[in-house]
Design a protein that fits this description.
- By secondary structure, the chain is of the alpha+beta class.
- Helices cover 28% and strands 31% of the residues.
- The chain contains 10 helices and 20 strands.
- Strands 3, 5, 6, 8, 10 and 11 form a 6-stranded mixed sheet that branches.
- Strand 5 and strand 6 form a beta hairpin.
- The two termini are 52 Å apart.
């Protein structure tokens, strides 16, 4: 990945060029100004006497009595705006010039007399975007000035640099040298290719929350994005819970020997509450090709893979214990959950009858909270009396998003004075979403909405629907 200055220069170049072009176009288009009456068809100036005598244009014979037959405005170019557009557009050339000057200033001076050992050190310690040392290595490769050991040292230096910068994009000069090395009979080993893959994307990891339910299905998607040059494959081979193997299945429940990066599946288990250590074992392999149809400098076919383990502590909590629903830190997600519960309106309507019965309506729209299920029973407090108004839930997971609500009208005695506000309490109701296999995290704290405005009337129209 090149230096950030290249991207800033590109954005600035395009922005100024576009702004200049827009200003020029607006200036050429001009603006409408008041003018003498003219025939809209041929633009001939219309004299009053000529118009009144015949109603026809003396130049083209067009009917001047129709709608829009006579034009009273003319478009005039805005020369100042055109000049400004040209000036702004011309400034775009400043960005590539500055980019070039900064790049030249940042280049490491590489002497053609530097030894290959020194060249390897320069490559390994080069900052991001600096490729002059690699370019010198490419020139020496083209001149057949490198031995097998020197090729190996320079290739290792490129890999070390990638590992140090944690870069997921090889510079063009680096891919060129790796291709030249392969052409000279020194391709990357599988271990080196795997190191490049992990340098850019980190070690693989399973998607495990810190707390999980017993008898749960955990979503496992061991995937790496595919990007230029490196083709990565990743297969989850085994998951153990304190040494006991768990079953890996696809979403249809079929047992799998391994879960590849092109699949999605689950790990199912049944264990009693407590703290455990989960160990996931992955097979990691990668292939490398600088360009489509280019010389492959590494091959996946028949190449050995190496194993990577991902270890972490988890806590399995029982569905019978109240604490199991607090599967995410309340302090870190409270604002998200509250924002997802949109109380649209509350209404208390009177039927106008002799018994003075009123109906309470609540309109609440549940929203999604990423990777979290919210499920609540709704209680409305009117003049200190609590009324159950229904329920709602919303589930957001890597597999699907689901939401549902049932907020029914509630009959209650009409208050002596209609309250201006009420209190709404949303109480966690995890049982409503336990049945969904994709749920491994449910919000577990009350939400309280104070001073919710109330609309009232003598009809039964209720809150906004």
């Amino acid at each position: 990945m090149g230096s950030a200055i290249h991207y800033v220069a590109l954005i600035g170049f395009l922005a100024f060029l576009s702004a200049g072009a827009i200003l020029v176009l607006l200036g050429v288009r001009g603006r409408m100004v008041l003018d003498v009456p003219r025939c809209a068809r041929c633009r001939h100036q219309i004299a009053g006497a000529e118009f009144h005598r015949s109603g026809l244009c003396p130049e083209c014979g067009g009917d001047l009595t129709g709608t829009d037959a006579i034009s009273y405005f003319v478009s005039r170019r805005r020369r100042g705006m055109i000049a400004l557009g040209v000036a702004v557009g011309a400034l775009c050339v400043v960005f590539p010039v500055v980019d070039r000057l900064v790049t030249i200033g940042a280049r490491v001076s590489v002497s053609t007399n530097a030894t290959n050992v020194e060249l390897s050190g320069l490559i390994g310690n080069a900052p991001q975007g600096e490729t002059s040392a690699v370019e010198e290595a490419v020139r020496r490769s083209a001149a057949n000035r490198l031995s097998a050991d020197e090729y190996a040292a320079l290739v290792e230096a490129i890999i070390v640099r990638q590992e140090r910068l944690q870069d997921d994009w090889l510079e063009f000069a680096e891919t060129t040298f790796l291709r030249d090395a392969a052409s000279a009979g020194h391709p990357l080993t599988q271990a080196q290719i795997d190191r490049l893959a992990i340098a850019g994307f980190g070690a693989p990891a399973s998607e495990l929350p810190t707390k999980i339910r017993e008898n749960a299905s955990l979503n496992m998607t061991p995937a790496w994005e595919q990007r230029r040059d490196l083709v990565r494959t990743l297969t989850l081979r085994e998951v153990r819970l304190d040494g006991r193997p768990l079953r890996i299945v696809d979403y249809q429940g079929n047992t799998l020997d391994g879960l590849s990066s092109t699949q999605q599946g689950e790990v199912v288990f049944q264990h009693s509450p407590g703290r455990y250590r989960v160990v996931s074992t992955f097979d990691v392999a990668a292939s490398f090709s600088p360009s489509p149809g280019g010389i492959a400098v590494g091959s996946l076919a028949g190449a050995p893979t190496h194993k990577v383990t991902d270890e972490r502590d988890v806590e399995i909590v029982s569905t019978d214990a109240p604490s199991w629903i607090a599967l995410r830190s309340p302090s870190s997600r409270a604002a998200e959950v509250r924002a997802a519960c949109d109380v649209c309106a509350v209404a208390i309507d009177s039927d106008g009858g002799a018994e003075r019965r009123c109906t309470l309506h609540v309109d609440l729209t549940p929203g999604m909270v990423p990777q979290l299920a919210i499920s609540f029973s709704v209680v409305v407090v009117v003049d200190g009396v609590k009324y159950d108004a229904g329920w709602f839930y919303a589930i957001s997971s890597t597999k699907s998003t689901i939401s549902s609500s049932s907020l029914n009208p509630v009959e209650l005695p009409c208050p002596a004075t209609m309250p201006a506000t009420v209190r709404i309490i949303a109480r966690p109701n995890p049982r409503a979403v336990e049945k969904y296999a994709s749920v491994d995290a449910i919000w577990g704290e009350d939400l309280v909405f104070d001073a919710v405005p109330v609309t009232s009337g003598r009809t039964s129209e209720g809150a906004r629907r």
